[in-house]
What we know:
This protein is α/β, with parallel strands linked by helices. 33% of the residues lie in helices and 25% in strands. Helix 3 packs parallel to helix 5 and helix 5 (137-149) packs parallel to helix 6. It starts with a strand and ends in a 5-residue tail after the last strand.
Amino acid sequence: MLICEDISFDIDGQKLFSNINLNLKPQKDLLIIGPSGIGKTTLLSILCGIQKPTTGKITYNSIDLYNLPENKIDEFRGKNLGVVFQNFNLINTFTVKQNLEIAVSAIDTKKSIPFFNILDRVGIANKSHIKVANLSIGEKQRLAVARAFVGDPKWVFCDEPTSSLDDKNANIIANLIKEESLRCKASLVLITHDSRIQTLIKFSKILKLGDEL
Length: 213
């Protein structure tokens, strides 16, 4: 279970958000919505162990995330969390497969990873040896989804996965995210201001950032 207690974040002494409290049970989904600039990406970074909150506590199955040493936070994230970043965070000079291999190296797993299978599921298996710089925006988003799920994470976080896509690709990406979450039996946390997403994925909980203030 993911538990957030009294999470707040300040920038230069100004409060971006406060009083974030939530519980997310295994295999449940959370949608975080709100206008641009309200702090959705910052909150996602906090939940993933990338950005420390000003105050508050985040617990994953009794593990106090920010009570761990920084290297252990990175290790925990690599083994347990999958992240789809808004700007993809892919290495453009590397191939599709190499980007997945780098992600797997952070997991420190000894099991064989079927790269072709996951690329096939997201529809870019024929692009495995193509450099990321030569992919379309939609293909990069598919690769970002594949990378997030390559290690079979138990929690998956997506930052605006559909906002830059047309309706056809938004539908494809939303379905991929939901299908992969079900396959991994993962909890899904998705943030967006894209109103289409609620018609594409049914969420267990919705948090409107700003209502907690």
